[in-house]
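Internal ticket #5521
Category: modeling
Description: The requester needs a full-assembly model to guide mutagenesis choices. All entity lines are attached below as received. Residue total reported by intake: 925.
Assigned to: D.W.
Attached entities:
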Amino acid sequence: MEISKDVLAALIDGKLDWERTKAIISGEKDLDRFDKYIEILQERVPWKEKIVLPLGEHLYIVQKDREYVVKCDCGYEFGDYRVNWKLNALIHVRDTKEKLLEVYPYPESPGLPDPEYCNIREFYCPNCGALLEVEAVPKFYPIIFDFLPDLGTFYSDWLNRPLPFPTEFKDLTYDVTKEWRKELEE
Amino acid sequence: MEARTEVKRRGICEGGLTLKELREKSDRLLQETGYYWGLKELPLKEKEPITYELIFTRLFSALIAAREKAKAVAASPLVREVAEHLTAIYTPEGDAVLQSTGIQVHTYIGQRTIEWMIYNNYEEEVGINPGDIFGCNDNAIAGMHPADVFDLLPVFYDGELVAWVTNVIMEPEIGAIGPGGCMPVANTERFTDGFRVCCEKIGTDYKLRKDFEWRVRFQLRNPDMFLLSRRAALAAIKTVHDEIINAIDEFGLDKFRQFIREVIEESRREQISRVKTRTVPGRARNVFVGEYYLKDLPILPYHRMDMIRIVPMDVIIQEDGKIVIDCDGAGAWGWHSMNVYPMGMEGGLSISLVHMFAYDGKANRGTMIPTELRLPRDTLVNPTTIALPTANCWSTVLSFYGLFMHCISRSLYSRGFREEIIGHGGGMHLWEIGGKDQYGREPYGFFMSDAACCEQGSAMGIRDSPDVAQEVYTTEPDMGSIEVWELTYPLLYLARNCAEESASPGRFRSGRAAYGIYMVHKTDKLLVSAIPLSPRRKILPNACMYGGYPGLNAYVNLYYDTNIKELIEQKKPIPTKLYEILKLVKFRKMEVLKPTGMGSELMKEGDLIEANYQAGSGGFGDPLDRDPWRVKKDLDDLVISPEIAKKVYGVECYWDENAREWRIDEEKTRQLRQQYKQERLRRGIPTKEWWRKERKRILNKDIPSLLVEMYQSSSAPHRGERWFKEFKEFWALPEDFTF
C-alpha cells in the first residue's frame, strides 16, 4: 500500500482521519516506510546530523563523526547509543504520596503505589525539560535500558545498506557505572 | 505381551504411520531443512492459489460458524455473553493449522494436548477412533488453568486420521475450593484447584459418556452449565469435523493434506517477513512484578506468607527475524495459584503474536516456530512441581505479555510503524463469589466476569487507546449485558461506567477502565474472593512509553451494613461514581480487598461492592506534548478533570457557560507548559547523583524485607546468574555482594 509522505506525517502526528488510519492498519504495509519516516523526522529537527534511528518521542540515534549518539530534538546529546541514555538524563523519583498525588490526584484510591516499594522514575532532558521516559519498577531495580538496537545488522542485513562506520551490538552501560564507582573511590 | 508385539497394529495416519511416527517425521523435517514439513516450495499455494484460498476460506468460515453455533447451545453466560471460547483445527500429529476468533491464547496449547496423547501412546493404549471425544483441562498436561476446558475430536477420512478439531471454553465454576469455585486464591495445591479431566476419552460415537456425566454431576456446584458447555463444544467441533470431510470430498485428500502443511509453512515465513519488515533487531527490556499476600488467607499454615516476585524480560529480535524472550532472573515459584507452566507462557506468546503480527486469520504453529522462550527452571514461569494450582496463572501471563507488547512496540516505533503499537498493564483485579444465590440455591459459586474480557489498553503510538476495549488473551473483547449478569449473580448494578482516574496520562493516553458498583441482592450469605489478574498493590506495572505515565492498580472495596436500601426507598441520590459511596452512603465497615485476598465477612442484601477494573495500562509520550484540543475533548467528555488538565497536561482551560463546553487559553497554556519544563529542570537531579545515594542504601541493606526476599529469589545462580551479574554491574557492587 502506497502512503505519501504527507499522509505518513499526519499518521505519526495522530492527525490522520480514522478512515484512512484504519486502511493503513488493515492493509499491506508500505515497504519504504522507514525511509519516508526518517525523511519526515529529519526535516523537523533543527540540527544537521543524520538520523540513523528514532529512539523515542524526542530522541534519535544520529551519526556524529564516526560514532552514533543519542540526541534530543532540542540538540542535547546523551552520548553513545549503547549506553543507556537515562544515565545522562535528569531523574526525578515520585517517592512520596505527595509527589504521587501531583500526577494521580486521587487520595482515596487504593490503586496508588506504595512509595516505600515502588519507584516512579521520571527522566528529563537536561536541556529542554522534555519528559523522555517514565518507568515504574520495584525500588532498587536497575534503570531499565528500554531498547538497544542492533544497528549494524539492521542496516547491513535488513536494509541492505551498511552504515558508513561499523558498530558493535554491545551494551556499554556498565562501563559508565564502573567509572562512577571509581570516582567514588578517588 | 508376545502376541501384541507379533501383530503390530498399523498406524492410523497417512501411509500407515503411527501418530508418534508422524510427529517425529514432522519434527525431523523441520530440524533438517529449516522448513515446516520440509516445504522449500509451496506448490499448492503457488500453482493452484484459488484452490488454496478456497480450502482456507472454507475451513476458516467453518471455524467462525462453529464458534457462533456453540454460543446458541451453551447455557453459560461466559460463552453466550462474552464468547470466552475458541475452535481450532490441527494436523493429525497436533500442529495448529487454523483458529477461529476468540480466546486464541489457547490455540497453541491445544497442540500440546494432542502431543500428550501421542507421546503417551493413546493410539494403542486408549484408542483413537472416529466419534471419540477427548477432554482436558489439566495444565500438568497442557493448559492455562482448570477453568479452560478443551474438547477434542479426531477427524477420520477413509479410516485415516486426517486432522483434529478442538474447542476450548472457559467455565465459570469448576468445582474448585470456595467461595467461587473457579479461580480461588485460597488455593495452594493442585488438589483444591477444581475438577480435572486429564486428557481422557469423555465420549464415543459423538456422544458424551454416561460415566463422565456422572463424574461431573458429583463434582461440580453447577454441573448442568458445565455439561451444556460440553454439548456446545461438541456442536462446534462436529460442525468443523463435517466441513473438513466436505472439503476433502470436494478437493481430495491429497490437497487437504498439502494445504494443512503449506498454511503452516506460509505462516512461518510470514512471521519472519513481518518481523524483518516492521521492526528493528536488538534488545528491548522490561520487568514483570507480582505481589502475593497470603499471610491472612485461610490456607495451610505452612503456605501462609507474603512475597513479591519479578520476571525480567529481555526481548531479543535476532538477525534472522527470530524473537527470543529471555527470563533470566525470574523469581521462584511458590505455593499459590499464580504460577504458570511453560505451556501457559507459550499460549501467552502465541496470542501476543496474533495481536502484533499474525492477525490475518492464519496464525498457527508456523507463527510460533521463529520464537524461543528461555524460562529458567524452578521459577514462577517454570515451576519444578506439578503439584501447584494454576487457577490464577493469568496473573503472570497477562501482565507479562502486556509488557512484552511494549517491548516489541519500541522496535515498531523505531521502524516507523507507529500505528501498530499496543501494550498493556495486563489484567485487572477481578473477583468471584460464593455462598447462596438470589434463588436460594447453595452451594453457589461463580466467576464474576463482566469486566474480564474488557480491559483498558495502554496508549497507542498514534492515538489514545479506546476505553474498555482491549484484552491480552482474546481478540474479541465483550462485557456482556448487565441484565444477564443480574440473572446470574445475586447482585444488582448501581453503576457500570468508565473510570476517570484510569486514563493514564501521556501525549496519547490509555483507554479508560470500567468500574462497577454492585448491591448485594436477595442473599444473606455471600463471600467475595479476589481474582488477582493484576497481582499488584504496592508496585505499578511498567506499561508506559516515551514519557507517558504508568496506570494505577485495580481495586475492589467492600462496604458492609449500608443504608443503601433506605436511600433507594427515600429516592435519595445513590452512588454511581467511584468514591461516591464514601459521600452518600452510611456503612458499618469498609475494607479494601487485597489482590490475593478474601472478604473478611459474609455479605448480605444491601451491602455494596465497588470495583475499579484498572489494568495499570499506561500513557505514551510527554503529557505536555498532548494537543490541547485532545485535552479539551477529554474535558467535554468527562474523561479527565480540570485539575488533571492543568496539573498534568499543563492546559489552562475554563468552562464556557453559554456554549456549554470547555475552552482552552492557548497563550496561557504555552506559558504554563514552559513553566512546568523549567520546574522539571529544577527538581530533576543528575542520574549519577541519584545512583550514588541508591547504591549506598543497597550496600547498607536499607531495603524493605519483602524486596530483599524478592531480590534474593531472583539472584539465585540457577535462576538469574546473568541477571544478577548485570544487577551488580549496574550498581557497581562488589563481586561477592549478596542480598
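Resolution: model delivered.
Comment from assignee: Chain B touches chain A through 99 residues (CB under 8 Å).
Ticket closed.
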